[in-house]
Amino acid sequence: MKSLKIIFSLVVLTSIVSCGNKREPSLQYMPDMYVSVPYDVNGAEGVNGKPVNSKPVAGTVKRGGYPAYDILDTNEGYEKAKNELQNPLEVTEDNLTNGKAMYDIYCAVCHGKKGDGNGILTERDKFAGIPNYKDRELTEGSIYHVIMHGKNLMGSHASQMTPTERWQVVQYVEKLKADLK
Amino acid sequence: MKSVALHNRLTNVFLKSLTLLLILSFSFSSQAQEVDAARQKEGRKLFRSLCASCHKLDKKLVGPALGGVEDRRENDWLQSWIKDNTALIKSGDADAIEAAEFSPTAMTAFPQLDEKQINDILYYTTVGDPVKPGAVADVASASEQGAAPGWLIYILAAAIIVAFLIIASLLKTISELKGAPKTPGAVATINEVWEGVKKNTFLKVLTVIFGALVAAYFLFGTLFKIGVEEGYQPIQPIAFSHKIHAGDNKIECQYCHSSAKHSKTSGIPSVNVCMNCHKGISEVADDTKVVFEDGTLGKSELDSEIAKIYDAAGWDADKLEYTGETKPVKWVRVHNLPDFAYFNHSQHVTVGGLKCQKCHGPVEEMEEVYQYSPLTMGWCIDCHKDTKVDLKGNEYYAKIHKELAAKFGVEQVTIAQLGGKECGKCHY
User: What span, in angstroms and rounded, lies between the C-alpha atoms of A121 and A107?
Assistant: First the structure.
């Protein structure tokens, strides 16, 4: 009778261990190798159990970086950027190619591949009233300003692109606007 | 779980019949007034292309709700406001100055619109959307999807029980033939079966071998699964459906996972990225459904999921402004490599030009994300052995690449031949 019990409990045990619940992480050999002790970017705990959202020290510029964008998100700021801000990049094939790649990822869902305001989200009726670039007065400064701060329903896309990529997108948007005319 | 599902289904049906009633009553009320369909259509088209990015009919957005705006303002005033609101404000018009205070953003001027077009738009804001007659077609037919493999399990269980009964009755007959006292009933009791097995050496050996095999199977199965999370599908704090976002709406993976192109991690988007769209989209379309493992989420549930983002971002959906009280969304990490293995997303996404789906599977079809690949070392190495490297535009290393190709006698070297199989590439 005893051996029957042992066999039975063994089968139950192994089936519990091996069947696994896909909602739970599986068994780990040396878990401290999987769940990092030092800070891990995508870790659940942050530093000392606090979520991390560190911003760079004010006034610092990373190597090869740009100074922080200090034009404010106001009507006056918009006018200032529109009239004064210049694209530091030259128009080159490379800049336009990457500008297109970035535009297709970050802008085309709403603004459409051609910049006519017919992106997939517009077509599927999620958003309405996305303007056609040709109907708007755009300068390189105003485009950059809107990428940084957003405008009306559009949010800021600054966190998703580096400054160089933003300027490349600006270049590509200007090209699209020219093509639409 | 079943009763919960049933309950959900009942609420669903109840809600749907309610909306049906609502829509019906609406259609009656709107049939009461005569609508000039052509003007309405023209006005709607213009409104949707020019105004809708900031205005809704029934709700405040960037600008105020415009339903019935003709009751609140004079037509002349509206005409000049829409054509050039800045000029109207500068002229010192008191209404215009008051209207300008609604939002810090100045309204776009629309000098391209003529009087008739503006009147069409205003007509549309008064009569509202045309009522769609076929909108409520598939109300009741929605929610019947049974658990298909359920009956299969029952059949298997029944088959096992029947087989067990047959064996038991056979054993009983054998022991009776051998001279054991006859007992009533066709089937032996468990004790009798046990006695029968104990007396039979052949059966004993067979059982032991069988037991050993089963034990070995489970043991090795378990050992091989240690640290392998293939199929891991944790419950996330927000019922975010990749199918809706990346599949139906075709938003690029990198729109949200924007750090994949430059950094080691692909990044979990911060809520401001969610808010890029959800500032304007506070509720899902009426027929949106998300089929999760634990039940189907309908419109009301999904709308409350969107409200969770507002909660995290500190967005007041009624006043349409940020309150400043934010809190983190505690997403549960799905893919995790141990610290002793180095992996870099930018190396694969930007340099290698791989599609995300190569490793993460058909994410655009997943309502709930699960780990598609095993992420074991063998799995990495297999891909490194097979993948040929595109060496174009890499002149600096041209000579080395040429020599490598000659050394291995191939036209195009693989990652492994470039050193992608060296231990130190990933473990250091």
Answer: 11
